[in-house]
Known about the structure:
Blueprint: H1 12-31, H2 38-55, H3 62-69, H4 78-92, H5 102-112, E1 129-132, E2 135-139, H6 146-160, H7 166-180, H8 187-202, H9 211-217, H10 219-232, H11 236-261, H12 266-273, H13 283-290, H14 295-308, E3 312-314, E4 327-329
Antiparallel strand pairs: 1-2, 3-4
Helix pairs in contact: 1-11, 2-3, 2-4, 2-9, 6-7, 7-8, 7-11, 9-11, 10-11, 12-14
Amino acid sequence: MDEYKPPFTITNKILSYVSLISEKIGRITATSNLEAKPHLRRNNRIRSIHSSLKIEANSLTLGQVRDIINGKAVLGEQKEIQEVKNAYAAYGHLSGIDPYNIRHLKQFHGIMTKYLVEESGEFRSGEEGVFNGGQCIFMAPPARFVPQLMDELFAWIKEAQEYVHPLILSSVFHYEFVFIHPFSDGNGRMARLWHTAFLSKWKPVFEYIPIESQIEKFQDEYYEAISQCHVAGESTIFIEFMLLQIDKILDEISAQISEKNEYLPEAVQKLLEVMEYDVPYTGNTLMERLGLKAKEGFRRNYLHPAVEMNLIQMTIPDKPNSRNQRYVRT
């Protein structure tokens, strides 16, 4: 029997995107060390988790997801809260994933679906379909074929890593994984986690780039690309879609970095680096995070310039000296 090879075509559009993305990743890596920016890195990871769960109909807001991760009590469905905790645990070990190891896949599915799925960490025993909301896009292969299909897919990616670019390989795997639908639940979350894991092995900076948030913005197009590939019998359209979204999110990341490096005073840059988005901070908390003692110097050099440049906002703008005043990064 011939070795299995997922069907796809390398188009000029794909080659162009691979070139563009490689250039942008090179510039991002050269101009800024995202790994050294803990608050930007953490914020992007929270965005990844929120978006990946939202695609699967989790109703929690970005702020609620952040509160759960920060250990705060949140009113919501216990299942949705557990999904956040599980996803945070999985993404927290992203750097330790070997995306070419099928045992790792099952292990991380166990983390992602802990307390939520009976067959957690095991391939499904029943029949499943791929849904966008209430619409069934297609029925997955019968459960009895799943172990063989997954073995063939992992055998192919192990061999193909030697000659298929990681940007293409990860997209092919993403589609083929969704098509096989190997688990009873959590397939979409696992596909997006594994896509990021592949790219992080290629360029570690991808660990902190929220590709999931870009997919969530174009969720309908995401499912439409999957559906078109199912009809076409190959993953070319999905590869092009994913490369387009990666290209777009890299533009956003570049903007985040240039905001920090090109025109802002050093003190304002430092202030922004210790602030997560959408989180209200007191002046004393910000001074503590910055390691500052002099309140007047903090206001003159850090706080007031950032407010004047509309980079942060006061929660009580009509009473700037209120004891209840908080500051939020915009």
